[in-house]
Amino acid sequence: MRLSALLIVAITFTAAAVLSLVAANFSVKLIEENSEIGVRDALDEAGMTWAEVQADGLQVILAGIAPTEAVRFRALSTAGSMVDAARVIDEMEVEAQADIAPPRFSAEVLRNDSGISIIGLIPATTSREDAIERFNDIAGDTSVTDLLETADYPAPTDWDDAFAFAVNAMAELPRAKASVEAGRVSITAIADSIEAKQQMENRLNRAAPPNLSVQLDIAAPRPVITPFSLRFTLDGEGANFDACSADTEEAQARILAAATNAGLEGAARCVVGMGVPSPYWADAVTQSIDAVARLEGGTVTFADADITLVGLPGSDQATFDRVVGELENSLPDVFALRAKLPKVEDPNAGPQEFTATLDKDGAVELRGRLSDAASRELADSYAKARFGSAQVTTAARLVEGLPDSWTPRVLTGLEALSMLNNGSLFVTPDTVAVKGETGNPNASTEITALLSKQLGDGTDYDISVRYLEKLDPVLGLPTPEQCEAEIGAVLELGKINFEPGSATIDASALVVMDQIADILKRCGDIPLEIQGHTDSQGRESMNLELSQSRAESVLNELRARRVLTGSFTAKGYGEVTPIADNKSEEGREANRRIEFRLIREEAPETALENAEDSGDNSTETSEEGSENEQN
């Protein structure tokens, strides 16, 4: 009995243990499932569906690839909010990130009367100290504010060229801002005048490296025009402006459009300035130009609000009266019109005229008629004061019956002539004509203003002034002869060398090529021959071919430097034109050379003489050759 009781107790404890084990296992399974489901639902609600959840007993294992480290940390926090954070096992990985992109390097330089300030981010390879030292030299007595930051990344392509160009540009621009990026520089500046603006643009464009994109926005103040003048002419030779002024860009466009409709061809210069006598200036001008077109010829001149319209001699009087009447009625208030239809002159009548000519050397000759000795002395003295005593020759005759206004017209015409480089003055009782060439783009406008002011309203005058860039002192274009001399001076200091027996230019000569290219860019379109010469070593035919190839290589190098070479030729002369003895190494070195020579037109007489001399020499050479063969 005692054994049976013990057995019952043992069985009872065993059954209780088994039941406890089963209950514990069931509880663990339940906890695993609840933990896994709860964490997974929380991650899905947070949008982290990429995370994988697995329960292992009381532990919750997170796996998967998180987009970023921050998202991975957020997944851990979310799981920790559902179960004890100590139970969360992190087996997640983070998606590989791309390399950090280099920063965008840029800088802005501002210069004004207070000094220079520079701000931006530049590569560590750019010498910040050198740049600030250069700015201190430019600023002089004013201050330099350095707000630059540096980053240790390689400089992008063309950054160094852009930054160096901006630094050098500040030396040319007293009031400017430069924005610098790799391969690009934008400059905004203010110039004191139109001429200063042109000079700035020319210097900066010439200095810009070919691989650099440069944007220039240089503003210049509008000129003050007094009187506000305009002169439009339509005749058998076509339509043109002797002077043109506008108060706004819109008015300028309207005036040029009216002139084009009247027959003007090509581009025309119309200065936008200050001083307009009425806000309806463009209305008055366009109506007057239209009237000249309807008359099929004539001239209209504005001097502030005074308008003078002169028809072509021989025009129909009825048509002239009708067009003038319609114009008078349509003109805005303030403007006053004076109209005149000249009569056809009798070709058999004796001329009452005065002429003055100014040649390219500055010599002036006065001819024609003057009213009395006092007038002739006054004209002679005035001309000598304007052109120089040694330059003036007076051969004018004294006649009676000239108009009272004759002497003032002559003196005013001489003053207008002095504004030209060369030209002529023609004065009659009805008109003053000034023709010639000038390097001043505003000469026509200035002469128009002078004649309008000095001769008074209603005076007819003709201005035919041609602007030539080569005469413009602002552009500073050298003469072809000066260009030839400058290149010769460069070649005296440095020689264009080639690799031995080759047409390849040696690297040591590239600096010389750069200097020559800079000169030729300023010279413009000049006729130039690039000559190749060799020493006498080797066969003559090979030397001729080598010299031709070397001359062409120089021509190609100039083209690569953006020099306009349309008027250039390359010619090899071989060994036939030595400048030194070919028996010594020094002499042969001197004979191996490149020369730049102007192509000059030969006078017909000279060409004929040269041809005759060449024929004589050929005969002599033939005779000598025959004698040598006999010997």
Describe, in plain words, how this protein is organized in 3D.
The C terminus is likely disordered. This protein starts with a helix and ends with a helix. The chain has 631 residues and is of the alpha/beta class. Helix 1 packs antiparallel against helix 2 and helix 9 runs parallel beside helix 10. The strands form seven sheets. A six-stranded mixed sheet has the order 8-7-6-9-10-11, covered by helices on one side. Strand 10, helix 5 and strand 11 form a beta-alpha-beta unit. The protein has five domains: 93 residues, Histidine-containing Protein, Chain: A, CATH 3.30.1340.30; 114 residues, hypothetical protein tt1634 (3-Layer(aba) Sandwich), CATH 3.40.1520.20; 111 residues, hypothetical protein tt1634, CATH 3.40.1520; 118 residues, hypothetical protein tt1634 (3-Layer(aba) Sandwich); 121 residues, OmpA-like domain (60s Ribosomal Protein L30, Chain: A, 2-Layer Sandwich). Helix content is 42%, strand content 25%. The radius of gyration is 45 Å and the shape is elongated.
Topology:
Blueprint: H1 2-45, E1 52-56, E2 59-63, E3 65-66, H2 69-82, E4 88-90, E5 93-94, E6 106-112, E7 115-123, H3 128-139, E8 143-151, H4 159-172, E9 176-181, E10 184-190, H5 194-207, E11 213-219, E12 229-235, E13 238-243, E14 245-246, H6 249-262, E15 271-272, H7 281-294, E16 298-303, E17 306-311, H8 317-330, E18 336-340, E19 354-358, E20 364-370, H9 373-387, E21 392-398, H10 406-417, E22 422-427, E23 431-438, H11 443-455, E24 460-467, H12 480-493, H13 510-523, E25 528-533, H14 540-560, E26 568-574, H15 585-591, E27 593-598, H16 604-630
Parallel strand pairs: 2-4, 3-5, 7-8, 10-11, 14-15, 17-18, 20-21, 23-24, 25-26
Antiparallel strand pairs: 1-2, 6-7, 6-9, 9-10, 12-13, 12-16, 16-17, 19-20, 19-22, 22-23, 25-27
Helix pairs in contact: 1-2, 3-4, 6-7, 7-8, 9-10, 10-11, 12-13
